[in-house]
Amino acid sequence: MRTRFYTHPICREHLTPPGHPERPDRLRVIVDRLDDEPFAYLERLEAPLADEETVLLAHPAEHLDKVKASIPGEGLAVIDGDTTVSPKSLEAALTAIGGALAGVDDVFSGEAGNVFVAGRPPGHHAEKNRAMGFCLFNNAAIAARYAQKKHGAERIAIVDWDVHHGNGTQDIFWDDPSVLYCSTHQMPLYPGTGAAHETGAGNIVNAPLPAGSGSEAFREAFDEKVLPAIDQFAPDLIIISAGFDAHRRDPLAELNLEADDFDWATGVLMERADRLSQGRVVSLLEGGYDLHGLSVSVAAHVGRLLKG
Ligand SMILES: [Zn+2]
User: Residue 308 above 90 pLDDT?
Assistant: First the structure.
């Protein structure tokens, strides 16, 4: 089965202030890396622009209106201390969503076995009614709702290995047992949510890790918490909120993962997907702020997806 890779140059036109970690160069290094020989069989596509209405799958209209109203005609506008928008941010965000939805279509139609989408801005901090933490709309949540609405999927698992807790995804699915949300993340760390006792309707599995944790603790959290929850839930689709800021080089956090850990985590999720979800895996870029760490981690992740 093919692995598809979606991105689009417009996602590099979502601008952030000088020195901001969530910067367009992140996509440049990913695209460059995936141009290398080992990725010759990766099928590269331009992410399509999603309709604005797709945002409403996971957010109220007032949130969409608020984000649209914040977009400046020129320069940057500030949403909060971390989150800014530039003239092309709405188009970039709708393209990141468009890639995610195309990926969902692909794995349900059989056009692809699995898909990686490198879009910006990221999504997992975006709550139902709040843009925050570099995120405007929750790409993974919109993709999950879309899979349910368009393809009749009943149960979706979202696995979030970004080093930060996906407070937005947890907020959106807090009382929705049709979506399982599993997160490994450093704690304490931004945004402050993600304690193990936050379990929603029994569909939220948080596996916080203390600063300094490395491969062993990460894999143990997967083996003991994430994977058993997926086995029990038997999802129709696995969406990965694929942040790579748990890599040891990352400047925003203190977990000590290696690229090989992302290869491993991808593999164990693919194994579940093969058994439970007809192999369907859609992976969406979240964080990852050291350009070298990001590049080698994405290469490990996509390399594993390609092995099928
Ligand atoms: Zn992060």
Answer: no
